[in-house]
C-alpha cells in the first residue's frame, strides 16, 4: 500500500515538474509573466489545488486604503452679515444656530461663546419682531382675535360664563321630553353611591328620566352597550337606536351638564364632532373651526 502511494506521489511530482518546465519555456518564447511568480509557489505545491485540478486561483482581497476622518466645517460669524442672518430661512438659521452652539460647547472660548450668544440674541429679536407684527395684525383684523369670543378680563368672563350656563340649561330642559339616561351601576361599587346622589340633584333640577341597570344581574345588556366600568351614563333618545356615552366614573353636576349638553346637540345632528365644544353664541366666530370655510380671503 505504501508503495502504491509513493508511486502516485512520484507521478504527481513529475506532472508538476513538467508543468513548471512548460511555464518556463512559455516565458522564454512568448514573454508572458511567470505563472508561478504571479500566483505564488504555494498554489502549485498543494497537490489538491492549482492547475492540476483545473481550478482557478482565488483572487486576493484588495487592501482597503485607510481614509482620514472628514473634517467638520466650523462656522464663523464674520462670514455672515447681519442682513443675511436676518433674512435667512428659518430652517437654515436654526441649523446655523445649532452649529454655533456645538462650536461653543466643543471649544468654550470667549470668542466662540460670544458668537453663539450673538446668534441667540438675533433669534430672540426676530421672534420679538414677529410677535409685535402679530399683535398689530390681530388688532387691525378683528376676525382674527379670539379674545372677543373668549375674554379673560373679569367682566368678560362673567358674561361668557352666564351665556354658557343659560344655553346649557335651556338645551337640557328642552330635551327632557324625548331623551333619557341609562345609568349602569353595580352593588359593590362605592363610586356608584356617590354618583346616585349627584343624579338626584340632576333630576330635581331638570326632571329627566334615568333608568338604572345593574351590570351584575343584566350582563347581556351591559355587554350590548360595551360597559366596562361603573358608574357609566349613556344618552338615548325616543324612537332612535343611536346612543352616546356621557360619563364614565363619578362626575360632578356641572361636568355632567356640559357633557350632556354637547351630547344632545351631537345626537340630534345640531353640530358635528368638529363643533363639539362650540356654543351657539360662538358660531361664526374665531372659535368655530368650520366657519373659516365660509370666509373669503
Enter the CATH topology name of the largest domain: Glutaredoxin
Secondary-structure-derived class: alpha+beta
Order of helices and strands: HHHHHHHEHEHEEH
Number of strands: 4
Architecture blueprint of SSEs:
Layout: H1 2-30, H2 35-39, H3 41-45, H4 82-86, H5 90-106, H6 110-140, H7 154-174, E1 179-185, H8 190-206, E2 209-214, H9 219-224, E3 232-237, E4 243-248, H10 253-267
Parallel strand pairs: 1-2
Antiparallel strand pairs: 1-3, 3-4
Helix pairs in contact: 5-6, 7-10
Task: Report on this structure.
This protein folds into 3 domains: 2-53, no CATH class; 77-137, no CATH class; 154-280, 3-Layer(aba) Sandwich (Glutaredoxin). It is 51% helix and 8% strand. The protein is built from 10 helices and 4 strands, in the order αααααααβαβαββα. The protein has helices at residues 2-30, 35-39, 41-45, 82-86, 90-106, 110-140, 154-174, 190-206, 219-224, 253-267; strands at 179-185, 209-214, 232-237, 243-248. Strands 2-1-3-4 form a 4-stranded mixed beta sheet. Strand 3 (232-237) and strand 4 form a beta hairpin. Helix 7 crosses helix 10 (253-267). The model is unreliable at 1-10 and 22-32 (pLDDT under 50).
